[in-house]
Amino acid sequence: MPDGPVRVRLGMLSETLEQALDVAGDVWPTSGMGLGAIFERGAVSLTADGELRPIRGQAAAELLGALDDAREELLAAEAQYAFHRYVVFVLTREADELETTWLTLADQHLRIRAEIVAARREEERLKRALAALGLRTTPLPEHEELPSLGPDRPRKSRGMYANLLDGAAAVVAELDVLPERLAEADHLAEERGWATEWGEHARLIVFAHGLALAEGEREADALDPDNDATVREARQQARERFMGLEGRSATLRFRLFDLRHNNRIVGWRITALRIEERGMRNRLELFEQDRARLEQTLAARRAELGPAAEALSSAGDTDKESSWRTRLSRLFWS
Q1: For 95-114, what is each residue's pLDDT tens digit?
Q2: Can you state the angle between helices 61-132 and 228-305, rounded to 10 degrees?
Q3: Structural domain boundaries of the chain?
Q4: Those residues with Cβ within 8 angstroms of residue 120's Cβ, 6 or more apart along the chain or in another chain
Q5: What is the pTM (predicted TM-score) of this model?
Q6: Distance from CA of residue 24 to its chain's centroid?
Q7: How many helices and strands (H and E) does the chain possess?
Q8: In whole angstroms, what is the distance from residue 290 CA to residue 285 CA?
Q9: pLDDT at 238 > cutoff 60
């Protein structure tokens, strides 16, 4: 294990990074050390169940206890909000990329389908020409359907999500973290299933908790714990912030579920389209091979028959027209 801090690159929203730099202050030689200290604080706190330090003072004990409870709720809400907001941002960007890929593949699918239909018609025309010259041909199967796209193209969610990420931008922060604290954080992520569920974003949970913890302790240090009115006001402010975050967090959690579900489905559709595209390209290649063979056979037959070939072709067209007229006559007059 290295003796000194290791450099960790961690994705987050720019607003989270700005808040972290403000909380860390300018007491650290480098911003990386200040950000690393926040991460380490989160790792230590979560390992020890992540509770805030109680506020001690001369104010009424029940007021201080109520304030501590409100701060605990706010701590969890702030940490979850910062994490969920970033993951929603990342998944929204991923959804845009998936949609672009899906639409590109869908357009390719339609183009290949049109080429197959044209190739099929050309093969039917060549076989009719051969039949008119007295050669037997194998008709194409009737009612053979090509894979077609469903009407449910992916759609971007609007309405309540339209302004959900206004002003958000992703950045990669560089943290200088002690190896033992990084190992603690990674072990915690594995133990609690964060690494499995969130992958590379699992470390942000630890950082977000450390940031919310540092913010809460900074506010506690600025509080007068001996004044009942001050403590009561601080509790009210904490409750209001918690309620505001709770509503926004609920929207983020629902959006997060929606994005993960939809991205998974679009990913499956992309895989299916790619498989279908390979099959359709193979089919188109077979049609092209058949067309080349039929054209050669038709040319050889015409050369064999000489001037009679044109007369036979004309007779075949006349017979075909008469056949269709007979069918229409039977349909309307029988």
Answers
A1: 999 999 999 999 999 999 99
A2: 10
A3: 6-333
A4: 140, 287
A5: 0.78
A6: 33
A7: 8, 2
A8: 9
A9: yes
